[in-house]
Amino acid sequence: MELSHRGPEYREVHEQALERVRSLLDVPRSHEVLFLQGGATGMFGLLPLNLLSTTTSADYVNTGIWSTKAYEAARQVGPVRVAGTGEVNGQFIRVPTAAELSIDPQAAYVHLTSNNTAVGTQFHEVPACGEVPLVVDMSSDIMSKPLDISRFGIIYAGAQKNLGPSGVVIVIVKHDILERCSQKLPDIFRLAAHARANSLLHTPPTFAVYLTRNVLDWLKDQGGVSAMEMRNRKKARRLYETIDASGGFYYSAVEKTSRSVMNIVFRLSSTKLEPVFIERAAQAGLIGLKGHRAVGGIRASIYNVISVEGVERLAQFMNEFMRIYG
Amino acid sequence: MELSHRGPEYREVHEQALERVRSLLDVPRSHEVLFLQGGATGMFGLLPLNLLSTTTSADYVNTGIWSTKAYEAARQVGPVRVAGTGEVNGQFIRVPTAAELSIDPQAAYVHLTSNNTAVGTQFHEVPACGEVPLVVDMSSDIMSKPLDISRFGIIYAGAQKNLGPSGVVIVIVKHDILERCSQKLPDIFRLAAHARANSLLHTPPTFAVYLTRNVLDWLKDQGGVSAMEMRNRKKARRLYETIDASGGFYYSAVEKTSRSVMNIVFRLSSTKLEPVFIERAAQAGLIGLKGHRAVGGIRASIYNVISVEGVERLAQFMNEFMRIYG
Prior knowledge:
The structure is a homodimer. In chain A, about 35% of the residues lie in helices and about 20% in strands. The first copy, chain A, has nine helices and 14 strands. The first copy, chain A, has helices at about 10-25, 40-50, 65-75, 175-180, 190-195, 205-220, 225-245, 275-285, 310-325; strands at about 30-35, 60, 80-85, 85-90, 90, 110-115, 115, 120, 135, 155-160, 170-175, 250, 265-270, 300. In chain A, strand 4 and strand 5 (about 90) form a beta hairpin. In chain A, helix 2 (about 40-50) runs parallel beside helix 3 (about 65-75). Chain A is globular and about 65 Å long.
């Protein structure tokens, strides 16, 4: 932490972290990898500052709390449109299909949130957006599966779910988008300036990058993102099957094709039992199961680091809890 | 690092870190303390985005590399003026006196860099700026001495010199300045929005804040900023006296009244001996003495954490080196 970011020790960590992102996600030469300070919320602001102007607008797909925040940030800068929604009767219980999106062919970009942590929905396909660059907030499912990077204009992800500590955001951006970045911003807020400086435009959050490099090494040792995908699917399947086999004792409001592999959000038919479930689970060492405060219920966030065994223990606990209280 | 920033464990750390800044610097109720992501370079950009407009300009005092960067960032956003300089014949060897500054009474703010790390100059008095808010980058001398906070509009400091790891910047800002912040920015870039959210607008760099809290605790145990000032002056005096007593073997280009207490920048009259000095010093366990790449020579950065004993070892090494090579 005390080493200079210009010294050889940090340089090596920095280059390795960038290279690991490239190799794990098979990033083509058409795209740049950046490490910036901040997280997704910072990117909500940088996107419109870099890419919106008085003559361009952007399309936003609204599938929950975080995509709403991204939309609101852009609205403070320039014109934005809603190109699709996951809302049904006031609740975000699905993601729209590609066919349901209405994309303005003149839009500066289309923005969507690939995985919605609070409501437990996830895009399982990359929608076709024609010539309009697709910008995706993957903060909660980056590195959880392989991706065809060539289909994206910008992918970004705050580190603190699948990658490392808070304080750093990974950005994968296509070169032709960098060329469109506004010139009227201080360099520190221009994606193109960070790309030109190889993410060393200013002092990077060195310790956060170091830990992210270590997590990426671990990911590689685990077999990379393909192995992660198999493991994550297996984990999610175990929990959804437990929910679906409970005869309604547990239920998920999310449409089956939109169910998230990262955040298993469910309710108990008896809502009075939900705090009991959370308390008993904590006593059994299963912590952090309370649903997002805007949604309630139960949420099992099973990011990359959560083991198959950990999920198995939760499934067994769910069955045991149902046996006693059902 | 894995704890939620909304949980009670982090909340306590967060509140303590903010409170320690308040108590150590005796921050009055007129000023807010913020922890933001990034560092000084981020603030170079946020300042003009928040406070410049088509009808206002800002004044910048130019005393070296970092103040030039701050000026350049503002120039990308709106009109800026140079209100004073520390340049003499193309070299930054002093800071201007208060009388030498020419401040536009209509300026949105006056910006200066209190300590210039590369050239080794420092403001030892706070210039009077009338009604114009004084904005100071104190990245390299925050917490090195007591301050009369009421005289400042904004003080900011990247953590990585005197406070903690890179990735967090402390901002002390007067309430009436918050009210002037632009409304046309995403909240993440509005100082007022961070103040309203008690620096929890988004996920803070939790580990960096935690370590900063620990450094502030250490500072308190050491006797606070008054004790630091005495210690820092003693350290600097020991090195400047060694330079001044060397009969020109060592010399400092900096005007005596502008000499920095944090960064002792000096040369050897025989520049050929400078790499030898750096090498022999490293062999004696005295590392990091190479001058900034834009300036050359020798630089002893003696931030808060450097002990009196460490400085004494350097002074003795300097005398010994002169005895052999002089």
